[in-house]
Design a protein that fits this description.
Elements lengths: L6 H7 L2 H14 L3 H12 L6 E5 L5 H8 L4 E6 L5 H11 L5 E5 L12 E6 L9 H10 L1 E9 L4 H17 L10 H10 L3 E7 L4 E6 L1
Parallel strand pairs: 1-2, 1-4, 2-3, 4-5
Antiparallel strand pairs: 5-7, 6-7
Helix pairs in contact: 2-5, 6-8
Amino acid sequence: MGDCCEPGGYDETFSKHFARRMARRYRRRGLSRSAQAIVSFLTDRGLEGARVLEIGGGVGELHVELLRQGAATATNLEISNSYETEAAELLERTGMAARVERRFLDIAQDPAEVERADVVVLHRVVCCYPDYERLLTAAASKTGRLLVFSHPPDNLVTRAVFWVDNSLRRIKGDTFRAFVHPPAAMLNVAVGSGLRDAYRWRGLGWCVVGFER
């Protein structure tokens, strides 16, 4: 992991307060539109009995929904420990605790420590990691059937917003940085790993791309 994105930066940005806010939003509104697009892509191609690997799933609302749609089990990987209280509460409330494993591990750094899954999901994750090629290569290597990830659109507005946010963080001494990685290059990583481009969705703030093995 690059110096601009050390775990301390993640813990400060994705804090327990942030986790509570995400859990509260899910309880009140359900999944975001971009998360719904991910669920739609995966359910259209069949989830029954699938093993799901979610990288950076936060409080876990997305993989909980995938379990409700027929997936058998889910493993969530985190590099911030701030989500665990809210995640445990969500799993208890939904009765999914026995079907979900939560681990602290950076898959880009230690891919050999992660087992292959039928479905691999990265939602609002790639933009938070400096080395998208390493991250997506690791994710694709664990994909048995379907890979889906979201990313911010690469345009002047998004780049300006990210530049301002990163600049303010730099001034405050916050080490976290967000990235607008090139969409075509990210797609090429997945395709180069033997996956086929199969799905596109675009919203106001997020794009979703899905791949099949």
